[in-house]
Design brief:
Layout lengths: L8 E6 L4 E8 L7 E2 L2 E2 L2 E2 L4 E2 L1 E4 L6 E4 L1 H5 L13 E2 L20 H23 L4 H4 E7 L5 H13 L11 E5 H12 L10 E7 L4 E9 L3 E11 L3 H16 L1 H5 L1
Helix pairs in contact: 2-4
Length: about 260
């Protein structure tokens, strides 16, 4: 089992509802943070779509990321294939979860996506440093405040199944809520705005699935206190898109929207 002293590289991973990305840094130079942008068929973008395209039996991944959305059917049979998206939302407590193919387990989608995503991480880290990925790399995943202990356990299991951990209980994985991660970043950059100890600020994280809020106070020694308990809700960008399409459908009809 790895100890904190074994870590050489930290990888921050944003597994998002519609897009995902990662950044990395060596502990010898923590401020030199690199954001990965060399995605397959999506070079230059900070994040890649959180999407999968499966075969007809939903057993094998044909493509992921941007290629999963960009694929055009060449045969009539292929036209029935649709990318699997929004599966991260199944980890939450929302009542009306996005539809998935009948009999398809959202945990498989998460594991399959993180497996492909993880291949990119492993390849990049190996190109940069000659280290042991499973013992010398610390993975930090951001999660919504809405995730309960069960959702976090499922995430850990999926990350292990994806081949990013040596064992299920590896210490090389940590979670941080998205508002907390944002607040820490703001704390480091507040000096540029001449905010002093005792200053209060609010973090609003408007994602594609959830919107998270947290209010913090800057304390001595670059630490933060929480003024009001963090809160979040399912009113992110994907839900705005869905409501807009419903509005358009009410105006022009379902046939026009489906085309």
């Amino acid at each position: 089992m790895s100890k904190a002293s074994d870590y050489r590289v930290i990888v921050g991973i944003d597994f998002g509802t519609t897009h995902s990305g990662f950044a990395y840094a060596h502990l010898k130079n923590k401020t030199d943070i690199s954001i990965y942008i060399d995605w397959p068929e999506y070079v230059g973008r900070l994040k890649v779509p959180t999407a999968l395209l499966y075969d007809d039996d939903f057993k094998s991944v044909l493509s992921w990321g941007f290629p999963a959305l960009a694929k055009r059917p060449k045969r009539k049979k292929e036209s029935e294939r649709k990318p699997v998206e929004l599966f991260k939302l199944h980890l939450g407590k929302m009542k009306d979860k996005p539809a998935l193919p009948e009999g398809f387990d959202y945990k498989k989608a998460i594991s399959d996506y993180l497996r492909e995503f993880g291949k990119v991480i492993k390849k990049k880290i190996a190109e940069e440093w000659d280290i042991n990925f499973f013992t010398q790399v610390l993975l930090i995943f951001t999660i919504p405040t809405e995730f309960d202990d069960n959702a976090i356990l499922i995430m850990r299991e999926c990350i292990y199944t994806a081949g990013l951990l040596k064992d299920r209980y590896s210490r090389n994985l940590r979670f941080i809520t998205e508002p907390d991660a944002g607040a820490i970043y703001c704390m480091k950059s507040l000096k540029e705005h001449n905010l002093s100890v005792g200053a209060n600020f609010m973090m609003v994280d408007c994602g594609d699935g959830l919107v998270d809020l947290t209010t913090r106070q800057l304390l001595e020694g670059e630490t933060l206190s929480e003024i009001i308990e963090r809160s979040g809700g399912y009113c992110g960008g994907s839900f705005v898109d869905e409501e807009f399409l419903k509005f358009l459908e009410s105006k022009v009809g379902a046939n026009a929207i489906s085309q």
